[in-house]
Design a protein that fits this description.
- The structure is a single chain.
- The chain is mainly β.
- The protein folds into 2 domains: about 70 residues, no CATH class; about 90 residues, Immunoglobulins (Immunoglobulin-like), CATH 2.60.40.10.
- Helix content is about 0%, strand content about 50%.
- The strands form 5 sheets. The protein has a 4-stranded mixed beta sheet, with no helix packed on it. A 3-stranded antiparallel beta sheet has the order 1-4-3, with no helix packed on it.
- Strand 14 and strand 15 form a beta hairpin.
Length: about 200
């Protein structure tokens, strides 16, 4: 699968004892699977294998000389290989305001493997755990922003399938917000006696 094109010299395939071999015309009579391989012909037969395709094709080539012809049929077998997972959509960089709610990202839209649906997603690294925590729940990436935290983080994600993997990354910017004033220490309830003297200064 995904092999380079094959060239076959047809001058060595057809011969005519009564005529010059180079005068034999060649043509493709049939190809049973042109979604697998495209056959093109001159004196050389070129086989162009289609990307990601595997299977079997029967190709018949005809040599004609002085109105008479002979056909040669052969089999092309393309053996499948395990394609690695790929990144089909990158994750755009994220900008949020401080104290934003959790964010969920569907990773099934990010990674794909054409011959294996059992993709395992994982987090390779998170450069700033004090800004945002990250976990994978099922096929979702869950981002939880820390309270009153601002700054930047870079996340690297990995998809693994059949022992092969691919990675993608994105940045997170959390913009600081002007928080209102807060109560640092509550004033406790007071209980005093009536006409109590003022405390000494």
């Amino acid at each position: 699968e995904n092999a380079a094109s094959t060239s076959i010299d047809l001058l060595s395939v057809f011969t005519d004892p009564d005529n010059e071999d180079h005068s034999i015309s060649k043509m493709i009579v049939s190809n049973t699977n042109d979604s697998l391989v495209i056959a093109k012909i001159s004196d050389t037969l070129t086989l162009d294998y289609q990307s990601g395709a595997s299977g079997v094709a029967m190709i018949t080539v005809r040599g004609t000389s002085r109105g008479k012809f002979v056909d040669e049929t052969f089999t092309v077998t393309v053996i499948p290989v395990d394609d690695p997972p790929v990144v089909v959509n990158t994750i755009d960089d994220i900008t949020v305001i401080e104290d934003s709610p959790d964010m969920r990202i569907d990773l099934t839209a990010i990674f794909n493997d054409s011959d294996d649906e059992n993709i395992i997603q994982s987090i390779v690294s998170n450069s700033n755990e004090s800004l945002v925590s990250s976990i994978i729940n099922g096929h979702e990436l869950v981002l939880s922003y820390k309270p009153n935290a601002s700054g930047t983080a870079r996340l690297i994600l990995r998809a693994t399938s059949g022992g092969k993997s691919v990675e993608t990354s994105f940045n997170i910017w959390v913009i600081s917000d002007d928080d209102p004033p807060m109560i640092a220490t509550k004033i406790q309830p007071l209980m005093v006696n009536e006409d109590a003297p003022e405390p000494a200064k």
